[in-house]
Amino acid sequence: MKKLVEVAICYDFDGTLAAGNMQEYGFLKRLNISPKEFWAKSDAMAAKYNADNNLCYMKCMLEEAKARKQAFKREDFVDCGKDVTFFEGVEEWFERINAYALSKGILLSHYIISSGLEEIVEGTKIAKHFKKLYASTFIYNEYGEAEWPARIVNYTDKTQYLFRINK
């Protein structure tokens, strides 16, 4: 029996697999905030403090939830993933490409490398297809509530994760 060649496919998420940003599907809708208002606030914070955009959007998420007296737990973010809709063909892509690759002697592994939230990706219909998710995530307090970023994945960090996958 011929040994299979291992190949990894790495995906971004927002604007690649799903239109827009993942926060816009469940999180912002649950808090009744328009995406335009939220991203303007996040971008203004990043500009004002010359800060990382990802840290600022995560801080804004926490502030907006707190202002509305809605603590978000890990499972709440995961639940927001159920609301994400994908570009046409994405949901069927993984099984189709895996079968095709296998017919050519290739074993595929799929990875997410995203500035979005790992928790939201975990709740999506396609999460089961990924070997590993590399995305931003929160620290949760003793009550299970998100309180601070644990990890961010920004544009330059993405290359670090490609290196990890290669190893």
Name the features:
167 residues, alpha/beta, four-stranded mixed β-sheet, 43% helix, 22% strand
What does this structure look like?
With 167 residues, the chain is of the alpha/beta class. Helices cover 43% and strands 22% of the residues. It has helices spanning 27-31, 35-49, 53-67, 74-80, 90-103, 118-122, 157-166; strands spanning 5-11, 106-117, 130-140, 146-151. Strand 3 (130-140) and strand 4 form a beta hairpin.
List the helices and strands and how they pair.
Elements (H helix, E strand, L loop, with lengths): L4 E7 L15 H5 L3 H15 L3 H15 L6 H7 L9 H14 L2 E12 H5 L7 E11 L5 E6 L5 H10 L1
Parallel strand pairs: 1-2, 2-3
Antiparallel strand pairs: 3-4
Helix pairs in contact: 2-3
> What's the β-strand tally?
4
Order of strands, widest sheet: 1-2-3-4
Please give the radius of gyration in angstroms.
17 Å
Proportion of beta-strand residues: 15-25%
Count the DSSP helices: 7
How many strands, what sense, and barrel or not for the largest sheet?
4 strands, mixed
Whole-number mean pLDDT: 96
- The N- and C-terminal alpha carbons lie at a distance of 26 Å
What gross morphology would you assign? elongated
Structural class determined from secondary elements: alpha/beta
Helical coverage, percent range: 40-55%
Query: Which sequence of SSEs, written as H and E, runs from N to C?
Result: EHHHHHEHEEH
Poorly predicted segments: none
